[in-house]
Amino acid sequence: MNQFAAPLALAAAPGEIIIREESARDFLAREALLDRAFGLDRWRKTCERLREGRLPAQGLAFSAIRDGVLIGTLRFWSVEAGEGSNALLLGPIAVSASLRAQGLGGKMIRHGLERARDLGHKAVILVGDAPYYERFGFARVGAENLDLPGPVELARFLALELQPGALDGARGLVRATGALAATEGERRLAA
User: Among 1, 8, 17, 130, which residue's Cα sits nearest to residue 72?
Assistant: First the structure.
């Protein structure tokens, strides 16, 4: 079994990193990690407009854990990529500063993309550094006729088709379509 796909029920060896689905108990550690990684300005980002008050896509919010401590987080969100094209929005992804440049972010992204594909999702969009995300197959192709609900550097607005042709003809405004957070617990997960 791939150590990064180990279910929560398995005990991890000391120092071993597991990637598992996020849980409500990850909330405080996740928020602290995101604040350290992006600062409080993270709430002003354009992609935040697509996440506000919504739950992450079902089965696509992950925590990386080592020795019981959250060291990484990755989430995907349901969106409509222009008129009638369903997609996922990747982000945020964050890894503890002491583990950056050691491959954990890449492992989390590959894990998340594989899970999204397994769940039948057809495309993923994101705003991020092209040189980093190109290794996973992301490119401007597929996003070039889409608009986000706020400012964005176009060179950073990228797409990946999990199914060939999924974004053919995609054009227009990207809109949030994910489930709304209704309860206090859901609002904590959505934060």
Answer: 17
- pLDDT tens for the 191 residues of the chain, in order: 333 343 444 567 888 999 999 999 999 999 999 999 988 888 778 899 999 999 999 999 999 999 999 999 999 999 999 887 999 999 999 999 988 888 999 999 999 999 999 999 999 999 999 999 999 999 999 999 999 999 999 999 999 999 999 999 999 999 999 999 887 666 666 66
Kindly state the tokens that stand for 123. Answer: 């495309």
- Smallest CA-to-CA distance from 20 within 54, 77, 70 is with 70
Whether a cis peptide bond, with omega within 30° of 0, leads into 92 is: yes
**Straight-line distance from the first to the last Cα atom of the chain, in angstroms, rounded to the nearest whole number:** 32
